[in-house]
Amino acid sequence: MTNPKPGDFVEVATAEETIRGTLLQSPELEKDVVIIKLPSGYNLGISKNKIKKISLLPQPQSLHEKAAVVTTAKKTASKLPKISILHTGGTIASKVDYRTGGVIARFTPEEILEMFPELKELADIDSRLIRNMWSEDMRFAHYNLMAKEVAKEAAKGVDGVIITHGTDTMHYSSAALAFALERVSIPVILVGSQRSSDRGSTDAAVNLISAAYFIANSDFAGVAICMHENMSDTSSLILPATKVRKMHTSRRDAFRPVNSTAIARVDFENKNLAFLTPAYTKKDKQGKIKLKLFNDKLKVGILKTHPNMYASEFAAYAGFDGLVIEGFALGQAPINQVDEFTAEHKKNLSAIEALCKKMPVAMASQSIYGRLQMNVYSTARDLQAAGVIGNLSDMTPETTFVKLAWLLSNYKKDEVKELVTRNLRGEITERTEPNSFLV
Ligand code: GLU
User: Fold this and answer.
1) Range(s) for CATH 3.40.50.1170 in the chain?
2) DSSP 3-state assignment of 265?
3) Range(s) for CATH 3.40.50.40 in the chain?
4) Is the CB of 90 under 6 A from ligand 1?
5) Which is the closest atom of ligand 1 to the Cα of 133?
6) Does ligand 1 lie within 6 Å of residue 103's CB atom?
7) Of 138, 160, 192, 212, which residue is least crowded by CB atoms under 10 Å?
8) Which CATH superfamily includes the segment(s) 64-291?
9) 119-151 pLDDT, tens per residue?
10) H or E element at residue 122
11) What's the whole-number mean pLDDT along residues 184-210?
């Protein structure tokens, strides 16, 4: 058996198949696994004990290798744009533990760079770990941490920042960063993956490389998410930070714009990008980010309305600083006593009224798409009379939650009530466009 080095193009023969690709550095804890980057961009881990032979092949000129050469030819090594990658954990920074079969162990930032060598051809990359966690454990303090680290990188003069993040709460974090980074003048792109980076089916390569390509080749400034556009690996979408949501538990194209369209499409296959939104903030490397952070002591909740609700569910939030009611459709909640079965509903309304006296209570719709219109039915009119705010907003419940917490962290109560329905970071659209549903 020859002894190829990382970076060599090889052919790996096992009893079942022959695989061609670029040999990658095996991570420290997985020395018994050979990792191959396939021409599709996927990484594949093969147990050493299954391998019969590894042979060295001449380097091919694949489509995207050629594209990368063109890109680098235009920009000499020292002229490459500077991108900082801040890792926070999630599946993108994880790998399958071959002993247990679970996705647990984590890559180091260096290992992630080794796995996606194309990144180094697109940009001068600085990569570091700021946290190593699942995104379901994120708290307001983590939003502050990410915002401060982005500001630090921006002050160094980088052309853009990529944050790798677990996908489950990535849309909360993107909204949080959009609010916390006032006057952000560079692109800050959050990227995740639905399959760990060492698996043949990983979507990490396309998402990460598309984000780097977007930063390196566009004049966009702002916070956005970059994830797969569809089930194939041909393109990614750049999605607006405050109008995006994880809409599927596991599909690689789980992130969809909500009441909005995508900002841009990165054609991964042909290394091309197209803006889908004509108006966007332009990059200004002289600009200075103003940090407006979260008060990490605040208690803000989200309560989803449902049939058969009890007043005690609302009352449970009495000690909180703010509440989002994820109501029905245009902004309704079960507050009408209509017959002998609905006596509790009168108590629900009193409980909501009591909360509104203590804290801002904002409505958001569990319909997800569309706009609140709380003047149509008497129910939502009564809720407004009780003090519930948010009428006419088309924010997702998640963005409403993040915005409410951020407003409470930075403004007086009266201002909070006024600002909830004022568009500050693209979170509320003026008009509902017909092409912003299920796209
Ligand atoms: N639940 C984990 C997280 O959100 C893994 C899911 C993922 O990264 O896609 O961090």
Assistant:
1) 64-291
2) strand
3) 300-419
4) yes
5) 10
6) no
7) 138
8) L-asparaginase, N-terminal domain (3.40.50.1170)
9) 999 999 999 999 989 999 999 999 999 999 999
10) helix 118-122
11) 90
Whether 296 and 140 have beta carbons less than 8 Å apart is answered as yes
CB atoms within 10 A of CB 8: 15
Most confident of 14-28, 90-104, 120-134, 326-340: 326-340
The Cα–Cα gap between 37 and 21 comes to 5
Which residues share a beta bridge with 85? Answer: 127, 162
Task: Report whether 381 contacts 228 (CB < 8 A).
Answer: no
Residue type, 16: E
For residues 19, 22, 28, 31, the Cα torsion angle rounded to the nearest 10 degrees is: 30
3-state class of 384 per DSSP? helix
Catalytic site residues? 91, 167-168, 246
The CATH number of 300-419 is 3.40.50.40
Q: How far apart are CA 216 and CA 220, in angstroms?
A: 10
This prediction has a pTM of 0.84
The dihedral built from the CA positions of residue 262, 242, 203 and 86, taken in this order, carries a sign that is positive
pLDDT tens for 350-376 read 999 999 999 999 999 999 999 999 999
Q: 339: Cβ below 6 Å to ligand 1?
A: no
Say which CATH topology domain 9-56 has.
SH3 type barrels. (2.30.30)
**Mutate which of 96, 168, 194, 225 to test ligand 1's pocket (most atoms within 8 Å of Cβ)?**
168
Contact 190, 163 (CB under 8 A): yes
Distance 92 CA to ligand 1 centre (A): 8
Question: What spacing in Å lies between the alpha carbon of 14 and ligand 1's midpoint?
Answer: 32
Strand ranges for 268-347 from DSSP E = 272-275, 290-291, 300-304, 322-327
Helix axes 140-155, 170-180, angle to 10 degrees: 60
Total count of residues recorded for the chain: 439
d(CA 361, CA 370): 20
